[in-house]
Specification:
Layout (H helix, E strand, L loop, with lengths): L2 E6 L7 H9 L4 E4 L8 E5 L2 E5 L12 E4 L4 E2 L1 H13 L8 E3 L3 E2 L2 H14 L11 H10 L11 H21 L8 H15 L3 E2 L1 H10 L4 E4 L23 H8 L8 E7 L2 E3 L12 H9 L12 E3 L1 E2 H11 L3 E5 L9 E10 L2 E3 L6 H6 L1 E8 L16 H14 L3 E5 L7 E3 L6
The structure holds guanosine-5'-diphosphate, 6-O-phosphoryl inosine monophosphate and magnesium ion.
Length: 428
């Protein structure tokens, strides 16, 4: 069981941080493979709550080596402040490894992110404003700055100048902003170089060796399947590939090495930012899910949009990720509803549709077709085994499993590490 991928099966915030942390004690490496500090992963250990943005959730497990892979975009200021915040709380971060090929988010990327959103007006994506899109755009345009560039001053200068030559034209002429001076950016980046240096490593070599030696490596996705730039609700997506294939490109590990792909699936649905969301609720049920589920963004503090469980999306996540298992989270939040609607298919222009339509226009018109499942009122937060759950909660889980196309191997019944029902071990 050497390599597993753990990723979001919906629009992010499914509870990936908790799930990764839960496994972290039994794995040797936890690897972020895409995204950056747009992620907000909450981990609750005892009475301590941690909000991680850039660092892999495995950083909280002492035996585990956390890795930032080549596919991640790294804001060096955020990296250092997140590390020192954890150090202040007594967490040992010295094992961290960072790929020299990861791209850097610089102040001009965050500036371009924010002004672009403003320029888009009501067509905006609702990004986290962390410079993610512009940094990936530079990577693809081959004008990005990589972690390794911090250690060759003249290359760094040339690359920052090349990137800013073009960007300053846009900032000044299109957005009416002051040009950014290359020298200042170079100076700021060089200021981080020595502090970051001890962590920089050839992570693809280390990870491939580890897998060959039988070590357990867990790839932790940020965001979720429907935010994937290829497979999500484009253009209302992030600019990377959170789906399973992203783990290969974002960490330099071949698909033949990956043995298990776990989709983290919330027992209902949430989304932050703009874009289609068929089961979204605008009534008191939506408000109740938001309040009971604590559905407020970890990164931007925005209220999350809330809706019922959508089995069409879960099936799609199974398909595009090749999921072997689901980890169903936040089942406890649904306690107290007499009946729980579950979206089993869509109605699009008068026709019943069972699979996610590839056409965005169709998806925008999709109306959920609901099946009503009986609810439960008993407190389930202390449940340790599946049979501890009330019959109707068991039936809800079984119904979701059948509709979603992969076994539910764990169930979250509370935010804490121990508030989990394990059905099949992920590590056997
Ligand atoms: P991530 O981005 O996927 O890591 O998820 P977030 O941390 O942004 O949001 C998930 C929220 O749900 C966090 O506040 C977690 O502490 C919380 N959480 C995770 N699993 C459970 C669960 O099973 N029950 C409850 N009530 N909360 C959970
Ligand atoms: P975790 O890892 C939920 C959303 C933003 C926006 C879109 C693009 O905590 O699940 P970006 O800044 O990435 O260019 O924004 O993606 N988004 C997330 N939504 N959870 C996240 O991360 C997200 N990261 C980005 O709200 O709609
Ligand atoms: Mg989150």
């Amino acid at each position: 069981m050497p390599a597993l991928v753990l990723l979001g099966a919906q629009w992010g915030d499914e509870g990936k941080g908790k799930a990764t942390d839960l496994l972290g004690g039994s794995v040797d490496y936890v690897v972020r493979y895409q995204g950056g500090n747009n992620a907000g992963h909450t981990v609750v250990v005892g009475d301590q709550k941690y909000a991680l943005h850039l660092l892999p959730s495995g950083i909280l497990s002492p035996g585990c080596t956390p890795v930032i892979g080549n596919g991640v975009v790294v804001d060096p200021a955020v990296l250092l402040s997140e590390l020192s915040g954890l150090n202040d709380r007594g967490v040992d971060t010295s094992k961290l490894l960072i790929s020299g090929n990861a791209h850097l988010i610089t102040p001009y990327h965050t500036t371009v992110d924010k002004v672009t959103e403003r320029f888009l007006g009501k067509r905006k994506i609702g990004t986290t404003g962390r410079g993610i899109g512009p940094t990936y755009a530079d990577k693809i345009n081959r004008v990005g700055i990589r972690v390794q560039d911090l250690y060759d001053e003249s290359i760094l200068e040339q690359k920052v100048e090349a990137a800013l030559d073009f960007k300053n034209q846009i900032l000044a002429k299109l957005y009416n902003r002051r040009a950014i001076e290359a020298g200042q950016i170079v100076e700021e980046l060089l200021g981080y170089a020595e502090q970051i240096k001890p962590y920089v490593a050839d992570t693809t070599l280390i990870l491939n060796n580890a897998i060959d030696e039988g070590k357990v490596v867990l790839f932790e996705g940020g965001q979720g399947t429907l935010l994937d730039v290829d497979h999500g609700t484009y253009p209302f997506v992030t600019s990377s590939n959170p789906t399973a294939g992203g783990a290969c490109t974002g960490a330099g590990v071949g698909p033949t090495k990956i043995s298990r792909v776990i989709g983290i699936l919330k027992a209902y649905t949430t989304r932050v930012g703009a874009g289609p969301f068929p089961t979204e609720l605008f009534d008191k049920d939506g408000e109740a899910l938001r309040t009971i589920g604590g559905e407020r963004g970890v990164t931007t503090g925005r209220d999350r949009r809330c809706g019922w469980f959508d089995a069409v999306i879960a099936r799609y996540a199974t398909r595009v990720n090749g999921l072997t298992d689901f980890f169903l989270t936040k089942l406890d939040v649904l306690t107290g509803w007499e009946q729980i609607p579950v979206c089993v298919a869509y109605e699009i222009d008068g026709k019943r549709v069972e699979e996610l339509p590839y056409s965005q226009s169709d998806f925008h018109h999709a109306k959920p077709i609901y099946e009503m499942l009986p609810g439960w009122s008993e407190d389930i937060t202390k449940a340790k085994t599946f049979s501890d759950l009330p019959k109707n909660a068991q039936a809800y889980v079984k119904a979701l499993e059948e509709m979603s196309g992969a076994p539910i191997s764990a169930i979250g019944v509370g935010p804490g590490r121990t508030e989990t029902i394990e059905i099949n071990s992920f590590l056997s």
